[in-house]
Amino acid sequence: MCEYQNHTFPAGSAMYNGTDGKGHCYTAYCNLSCGTEIRSQPCNFTPPPTPGCLFLNPPRKNGETWRSNNCTTETCENGKHITTHVQCSVTNIVCENGQPPVKVYDENGCCFHYECKCVCGGWGDPHYVTFDGQYYSFQKNCTYVLVKEITPRHNFKVYIENVNCNPTGTVTCPKSLIVYYKNYTVILTQERGAKTVNKVYVNGSLVTTMFTNNDMTITNQGIEMRLTIPKIEAVVMFKGLLFSVDVPMTLFYGNTEGQCGTCDNNTKNDCRLKNGQISPSCSDMAYDWRVSVDNTPYCNGPPPPPPPPPSPSPSPTICVTSSLCEILNSEVFKECHKVINVHPFYEACKFDVCYTTVPMGCSSIEAYNLMCAEASICVDWRNATKGVCEYKCPDNKVYKPCGPTVVQTCNARYNEQFSQQCNAEGPQNKNCNSFGEGCFCPGGMTLFSSTSDVCVSSCCAGPDGKPKELGETWKIGCQECVCDKNTFSVVCKNVTCATQNPVKCTEGEVLVKKTVDCCVTPTCECNTNTCPLQPHCDVGFELKVNTPKDKCCPVYSCVPKDVCVFNNTEYKPGDDFRKSLCEQCLCTETKNSKMELNSYKCTEIQCLKSCDKGYEYTDVPGSCCGKCIRTSCVVYVSGVSSPVIIEPSQTWWSKDQCTKYDCVKVNNEFAVVVQNTTCPPFDPNNCIPGTEQKDASGCCKICVPPSPCKIHTNTTYLYINDCKSVEKVELTSCEGSCGASSSMYSAEANSMMHSCTCCQEMKTSEKEVQIKCANNTTKMYKYISVDQCGCKAAECKEHDCKDCEKKDGKLD
């Protein structure tokens, strides 16, 4: 930077540019070395171009504009680096609940606007303050809707359960808050008795001091239980007689209903009923938000009508104000008076002290102190009550009025996770700078873990995860550990082992190193893999194994079985086998003294080699005896004393030549094919005498049968003397047999009677033919032609019969 006349100029910028009015100009520049360069020249001299912002990284040209973030615009102008912020308009607002407004930045983080905090709370014999600051009292037991969304957007609602605090039932106290978010049900409650114990349940499971996941964080510091939901920036707190629900107006504006009213900075609609109408009294409205639960059947009926306004009492009761409530108006809360209106808390304190007990007024002071803490104002007020509102912490913890909301523990990973959440931007760091009263570990001590309530002076943990005292020792595996007094941490070292004597192993044993009490000890162990291999026993013997107690390796022996052995094959007594092809053996019960095996007896097999006719003895390979193999066909024929042997492909005929036997061999099988000749019927009377004979086979009789009487035709020339027919003519005649002739004695005639039939013409006709004679003359010639033949009985005289017989068969 360069200085001139109490002004600073960045490197590369012009510092002065003037003239003397006589045509001479003077200029001055702040160079890159932050030195001043003065130049003088005539005014008509053209000055060098205006330099850019070369001093920036990266260097920028003159007139260049850029954005380094969402909230600023940067420009290089005549060598000057000019930064222009986004213009924001901010409007101040007044919150009806009396709390200071909070800044809410836009998405870019450049500009903000003011919003009112939506904090609903209650305390004592319940006194309520709605989100918008409307104060009312409500003394009824059962469960009610404290906060719910009119239009579901974030799946968030809170119920409150009130119970009677005294036997008369006129005083009620908050017992628990039930928070519903997404799929979670979180119950913040107290068990009141001789000692009040805070209890937190998540989906029915009890959690201890701390619970955290991606959706929520729950802390429990003895006095206060706090549930934080970063995504919707909601905080729910429960301290027994004191509770509060804090939601951002940005996300819940105009969208809440229940006993906490509507979050919209307007008290006129805080007493909203279930049907959306506005009740003139928030105390009456509170009845309307009762809900039914399983464990309080007496609350499931219709809500009772609101009580009538009390009639003026003729002699009103005068309550003497306790000095306890005056603490609210004292110097103790001086700084908080500037921010939070104390009046409703003061009035509530007087009411509780007057109509219940003096200690009940502590809840009003506690509620006001909570509002102060929300405004980052720490007040140590309990000492001012002179023991009336004293809070006794467990013996291992001390009371602090302004302790951190999230406490550091011995778990470095947990601390780192919380630290990362605090360093990140967004609603998840809402608990980082907040504080509140509670029970904390004394100075010099640390909470052991987020899930325990143990304070330790050193962060030593044993193998069971529990804390260890300084100087305490324990053993983990093969290490001896101690909670070191110097480092306040766990120091472990290996166990010291004694020197071992040399060990010698026997057969089958191997030297191994065993860890006994974390020390390596050499010892001999039996390893059968190093023993001699078991022997292989011969056929007929079995392996016997014996392992002595004082030996590693087994002792093997081969003992004989109760069997015979031949050719490496075992046979039991009674089994037979062949020693050779013609030697049959039998295994006996007798022992062979040499081998200690059973002995066997063998006999020679005798073979029969004679075969029947048609068979031939043939040796069979692999068999002691051969067998008779058929070589011919054997036929047993009736009337033949011995069987007939027929060679393959040969034929044998019976004696009468009427039966044929063929021997056929197919696939080494022999078969006889028999064929019988069937002769046609034979009658010798139908034969021409002297023509009887055998046929070609020699089996059947045959003969020449006589021909029947019929016309026989002969086509030839007709010769008449020296003449010859011009053409051939058919000459017909009768030929054939007409049955047998007979000659038998007749007693009646007392003579021989002869009978015969002759083949002769029965019908004739006359035909004419042209003939030519030797003299070359022609003429017509008539001749007789037989038209029909037949057999006709001839009445022959005795002397004519022979002639008739001669003529039988042919007539001229």
UniProtKB/TrEMBL annotation:
Residues 458-525, 562-629 form the VWFC domain. The gene is LOC102198686. SMART domains: C8, CT, VWC, VWD. This is Intestinal mucin-like protein. GO terms for cellular component: extracellular matrix; extracellular space. Signal peptide: none annotated. Transmembrane segments: none annotated. Residues 709-797 form the CTCK domain. Residues 118-300 form the VWFD domain. Keywords: Disulfide bond, Glycoprotein, Repeat. The keyword Plastid does not apply. Disulfide bonds join C709-C759. The keyword Protein biosynthesis does not apply.
